[in-house]
């Protein structure tokens, strides 16, 4: 249990003018009232109110809130009464303690009703004094931190309640740090296996790539120092629940999740925020569609910050938040910033919102709701404002993205209902199918037998589920006709460039386009969802001369010092367009490796030799050798045909070695000169489409890791055969 002296010291750190005598009195009063009471863990019960007070003190809250935290369980669990607290600490604090008590002192029949009533009490209490909610949130946070002492079924109940009610509430109030911790603590109980798996992946990632946070933070500080901007830089890995939620939303695995690190830059003034943004975007490439300016357009809870995502060191995506110190205080404390102190003075933060005005916008619509279920739904609509919650005629709730239409609603109910939809009513009124659904509206879908989806629906629908179902239904209507038409279109397109639309070529195109099978490819080709040119380019990309001047080899790599030379590593043979890392050799320049090269393991303990490099954008000449492992049929003319195909794709053969000859096939290593990774991809696709080519893959030779660079080789005279 935290001693009173430590609590006083914590409060004095931000508010030296606090009423120490009153806080001590509240501490002693609470300890006396809870004397003889113990928690499930065996600790004295009063350790809990003190811990709650310490959490609120860390947010620099006023004396009344701290004292309320010390006394918040006295009326409910001890002989203390409202009048006795009012007598000793005043009516104001007595009202706050009573408000917290009423939030938890509920005995209702059903869990659904209890949840609704909890929400009602929460919001009604907020309308009177939001500090009641701050105490309640801190109370829940400490309970979740110590939840292991409870029975398993009680843990699960509390965790779900936290995830459904308290974590979203903390987020809505702008207290993101509390929301993240509540979610993570609840996640630990609800799905411990998933959390443990993510933590294991984090540990493995750290072992493989080292302290990424420290390296990127150092890079950012260097860029800001260069730009002459004074700012603090912090970095962290995102919380396991946040990672898990993104994995579920995007339906991808951990290995494909890119932005798992977050960084924060705190500046001294607002203009510097935009200066930091410019310095970061100059140094790293910004990710399109991942920029938000909440400084010019603040959130309703007062949150201000610039959010951007960039491709940082080693090509890893990182999220960067940029804001001033005052903005940061609001971002950390949310609406609680209104009561915060700094150096004994109530914070005059221009960005802190007026809690009374903020909460009135939330509660005005709830006062009229008499039914518990209606109230619960009304609250959820407001809590999850980025979604649209609408209702079926029976009152069931359907969650849709903002901007959804009755078409999306119909398919969200069932694909069969969506396909048979002929109209819709919103709140009893007939509306066009392109009408945007608003929060809280009731939607009634009108169906008819024999109705089929229309092509125009694709422009109306906004959800992926609806769009994919519409496309499926449209394709099924004329699938056979489209397949025949698609085959004829493919034949004509291939013959136009002197090629044949063989089954293998079409299979390669289908695989590259991720369409499953040839019939699906042909059906989409016949229905004009896919162009013949796109299919042809997938197998035999058109090799037109690219616009612009070619980039010389001396200017190909960005990130080198003046006069510094580079060589490509023989082991991985990096190409323009690939993510690269440089390893320095004293007196011998820099050797460039691909980011996934196994040879880099040998340099893990030498971080000072690593250089963050990337290729210059633009057109590169076809001078970069890459080895291909090709298996072809052992028939007359096959080798010549393959070499001709490589030449047609503007890839010069610099060396060819046959090393495994069999009666029916043989393998060879072909060194070809490529422009970039895209050029290589096109070549491999074209080779795979050939009937005479059994297999083709890029050859990497780890035994060449010790070689300092890749020297240009002269084309071999004739063929070399290795035994």
UniProtKB/TrEMBL annotation:
Annotated EC: 2.7.6.5
Keyword annotations: Hydrolase
Enzyme class: transferase
CDD domains (UniProt xref): ACT_RelA-SpoT (cd04876), HDc (cd00077), NT_Rel-Spo_like (cd05399), TGS_RSH (cd01668)
Disordered: region residues: 704-723
Function: In eubacteria ppGpp (guanosine 3'-diphosphate 5'-diphosphate) is a mediator of the stringent response that coordinates a variety of cellular activities in response to changes in nutritional abundance.
Family to which this protein belongs: Belongs to the relA/spoT family.
UniProt protein name: GTP pyrophosphokinase rsh
Annotated organism of origin: Roseovarius nubinhibens
